């Protein structure tokens, strides 16, 4: 079974997707982390983000592995744990450009579909329900106000010792929303058959329960 969870930056996709996958005993696939991994390597190796050919070459060679360690999912890039490194402000500011490169998306989507074809999965991203897993049995589209998403991101950064002004984060998120929804390849948009959930005033637990309810309803319908 495939559960596709889409939505804009900092809508809470990764957090709730991990919990939903654990509750359902499904595999969680963090597609955003995969694009961040390619972005991180491009930055570290000094590859210009406009150099699509070189970044696509990076994507073809990269080895990405998700490992559960003490109940926490880590991402390994070329056998090295880079879980925290892919979450820096610099990577966040540039991942949209990298994920818009056709060659990069082709490589990542192939990996994602292979994983989804072998396991019951919860997969989150920007275009899971529309492009990666268009036949997913359950599609969720999470939304939230820019202000609430900026506050969540600020709290996340502060927990890592990074302090950024809320106004700057709101500006960054608005810019990211525009880039994601206007890119030529697989733009961010709600699938026609997705269930939309506005998480602005919801707790993580509330969102998880709402998604679980949709999954169970689908399972009962198809049982």
TrEMBL record:
Residues 3-216 form the Cytidylate kinase domain. The keyword Cell inner membrane does not apply. Its EC number is 2.7.4.25. It holds the Pfam family Cytidylate_kin. CDD domains: CMPK (cd02020). Transmembrane segments: none annotated. ATP binds at residues 7-15. It catalyses: dCMP + ATP = dCDP + ADP; CMP + ATP = CDP + ADP. PANTHER family: CYTIDYLATE KINASE, CYTIDYLATE KINASE/PANTOATE-BETA-ALANINE LIGASE. This is Cytidylate kinase. The gene is cmk.
